[in-house]
Structures are given as structure tokens and as C-alpha cells.
Amino acid sequence: MIRLIIPFVLVVTGLWAWNLTTSAGHWSVYDQGLLLSGWLSIALLSLTMMLALRPAWLERPMGGLDKIYRTHKWAGILAVAFAAAHWLIEMGDDVIEAIFGGISRLDDLHYSGFIEAMRDAAEEVGEFAIYLLFAMVLITLWRKFPYRYWRYLHRAMPALFLLLAFHAAWLAPLDWWQQPIGWLMAALLAGGSLASVLSLAGRVGRRRQVQGKIVAINSPEPSITEVTLDLGRAWQGHRPGQFALVTFNRLEGSHPFTIASADSGNGRVTFLIKSLGDFTRNLAHKIDVGQPVTVEGPYGCFDFNRRNRKAHQIWIAGGIGVTPFLAWLEAASAAHQPAPEADLHYCTRNADRDPVVERLQALCRDYPGIKLQIHDSSKGESLSAEALSASESPGARAEVWFCGPAGLGQSLERGLRTAPLRLSRFHKEAFQFR
Questions:
Q1: Residue 310 falls within a domain, yes or no?
Q2: Looking at residue 368, what is its pLDDT?
Q3: CATH code of 353's domain
Q4: pLDDT band at residue 164, thresholds of 50, 70 and 90?
Q5: Cβ–Cβ contacts within 10 Å for residue 197, how many?
Q6: How far is Cα 190 from Cα 16, in angstroms, rounded to an integer?
């Protein structure tokens, strides 16, 4: 996220600085602040819209679709912050005029009738759109707002972007379009507008969608639903650890679920779905065998083949986060691959009632190099960075693969970063796309 957003902001700011004039004074500071905040806002919104297309070619350099969507989210939030600054600066012109006198150079520009009319319209549209943008972000950050309603509100974002693009394009100084900053903004506005049109037309992810049906539904425990789908020959296969966007109900929309089975080549995939929200709660009673489904994917770079082969491997699964590790072990067994070596830590609320424990133990029996450790919270057993560090040799290089609750992942990563062991990398996925 940071490695894309910060360079992006620096590039836009640098090209804005290229166009700075030598004039000074209160109104010059006002004008340049208004331009910079507006440019940064619309540039980041353009980036947000283009990332929403789920570009597959960016997955590997950015570390997976989950990282792309996290960047999409924070670029949008930062864009709104700059939009708020832009709005506040615009609202402050009367105060500056009352204190210092004079007028903004931008307000002093006069154009022919048509251009002036379009600029007036762009200013009114921009003010209306920015209020809607503020409301959209507040609703997005309000976690209790139901996803199924938020999803429809979020689909209006492309139309909102087109209004803001109209505002930015017509109110930008005309001479800027002949400068590098203008060339960059023209490209970003074009890219963001194209992405918005594709999104409004329902074309996002269409090429990676496959139609299938449910062939089996099981409930190994009340809070988990195991669903097996038959996607036929249209499914191009997947790598262990990847996930897919699954649509059981068109009104509800798609949700990301990690694929819990290895690719068998017959178009069948299995998902272990934890009851975490309104839709997934009692999912087994909301779906039926034979029901059609839409699956988009696969996505993700949680791929054990990308491991650092010189580092000791530590696998950490929390609850339903065990699914990619099940797929890894099943794939290795089916392909008769050399036995991997890793410490596998599985954190569960109650090992005696958890059906995954027995499945994990059975898979690990075939691999002596996998040291399985069960951490049962009902017995007061918990996993900590200190315990992980103590089990490693001082100064040893380790690579961690984590899938589980975000809070646990953050705590372990913070602790391991300061531990004596040399942490090569901490792999984790972020499924909070909202």
C-alpha cells in the first residue's frame, strides 16, 4: 500500500512544484494550495477507480488482490482528506479577502461565454459531489452499516467520480494542460473515467467469472459451512492458497473466500466458510445443493512456492485461516512433492470440538517435517511472538505465513519485528475489502 501511494503522491506534488511561479503573497499561497489539494484529490481518486478494476497484472508486483484493494481503500480515504482540504481552502477566500484585501488570481480569470458557463457548472457540480463523497466515506468507515446496502451505495462511486472529473478538468488553469502536470492529469482522468464507465457497465472481473453449481454442503460445526462447487471445464485451475469471489445470491453480491482444496483438475473447489457476518451466518440454511453460483478468480499470491528457501518456515493459522494451509498440504500430497519443512501453529477456540484438528493431524502424518502445534484457547493456550521467538535459534532467519484474525496477525508481526530472530518476511492476507 505505502510503496505505491507515497511515490504516487510525490510524483503529483513534484510536477505541481515544477509549475510554481515566483510570485509571493497571501493570494499566491491560497491559489497554489487550492490547486495542489485539488490535483492530489482527483489523482488519488483516479488511482482508486483504476485499482477497482481488479487488474490481474498488478497482483504479483503488489502482492495479491487483497493488497490492491487495501491500496484502493486508503487511496480513496486520502483522496477525501485532500478533497476536504480543497473545500476548506475554497471556503476561506472570503476570510482572506476581508483580512488582506485583493482577490485570487484564479477568480480574476475571465473566459469566453461557453467556457465561463462550463466553469460555473463545474464549480456547482463539484460542490455537490464533494458533499456526497464525504457521506460515502463516512458510511464506508461505519463498520456497522450492513454490507448488502453499502455495496449498492458503493456502486454509485463511479458516477460520483465522473462528476468530480468534470469539475477538475474544467476548473484547471488552461496553461497547465501544456505542462507535465497537465499531461499526467489528463492520463489519470482518462484512466479513471474509463474505469468508471466499465464499472457502471458491470464489466469488472467479467472475464474471470465462471458459472457453476453447488454439489455438496456440510456443517462440520455450527459456525462453519463447507461448500463444494462444480465449475466444470471453464475453471482454469488454482494454486494452493488462492481465493475467489463467490456469489451465492445476486442481491448479496460476491464475497472473498479462500479455496480450501487443492486443484484436482476436474473443476471442483471447496470452501470452508466461517460465520462472520449477516450473510454467512447460518449459510447452510440459505443455500441448496444444485443452486447456481458465480465464481470469479482465482486471486491472491499467498503461494508457498514463493517462499524464501533459505529461511525456516513458520505457518500460523487462526480459526478459518487454516484453509490455505489445508490446500497446501493436500496439493503436496496429491502431487507427491518432497515433504515441506515448517512449524505449523493452529489456534482454535476448542480443539476437542474442532473437526479441522483431526484433518490437519491426518495430513501432517505424511510429512514428518511439519511440526504441528495446536493452541487451544479453551485450555488457556495462546500463541505469542515471545513463544515463537524462543523456539528459534538466536539470530536464525525465519519466514512467517499467517492467515487468521487481523488483530492476532498484527500482534504477532509487531512482536516478531523486535525479536532476536531475523524475520525474512511476514506474509498475510487482508480480506477486509471494505
A1: yes
A2: 83
A3: 3.40.50.80
A4: very high
A5: 14
A6: 19
Number of Cβ atoms within 10 Å of the Cβ of 278: 11
- Whether the CB-CB separation of 4 and 71 falls below 8 Å is answered with yes
As beta bridge partners, residue 371 has 343
Higher per-residue confidence, 24 vs 132? 132
pLDDT at 373: 93
Grid cell locating 175? 496553461
Look-up: residue for cell 503436496? 332
Query: By residue range, what is the domain housing residue 196?
Result: 1-201
Domain count, the chain: 3
* 113 has a pLDDT exceeding 80: no
DSSP-derived letter for residue 338 is P
Q: Do both 156 and 238 map to the same domain?
A: no
Output the nine-digit C-alpha cell for 202.
458491470
Residue 434 falls within a domain, yes or no? no
Residue appearing with cell numbers 539470530? 395
The verdict on 249 and 381 lying in the same domain is: no
Same domain, 1 and 103: yes
- Are 313 and 224 in contact by the 8 Å Cβ rule? The answer is no
Q: Given pLDDT bands bounded at 50, 70 and 90, which one contains residue 245?
A: very high
Cell of 383: 500463541
SS3 215: strand
Contacts of 93 (CB under 8 A, 6+ apart): 30, 104, 107
Residue 43 within a domain: yes
pLDDT for the residue numbered 141: 78
- Average per-residue pLDDT for the chain: 85
DSSP 393: P
What separation in angstroms does the CA of 203 have from each of 44, 72, 207, 209, 229?
A: 22, 18, 8, 10, 24
Question: How sure is the predictor about 363, in pLDDT bands with cuts at 50, 70 and 90?
Answer: confident
- The mean pLDDT of 7-30, rounded to a whole number, is 74
Predicted structure pTM score: 0.85
Same structural domain, 45 and 158:
yes
Please report, for the domain that includes residue 229, its CATH number: 2.40.30.10
Asked if residue 281 and residue 311 are part of one domain, the reply reads no
pLDDT value of residue 96: 57
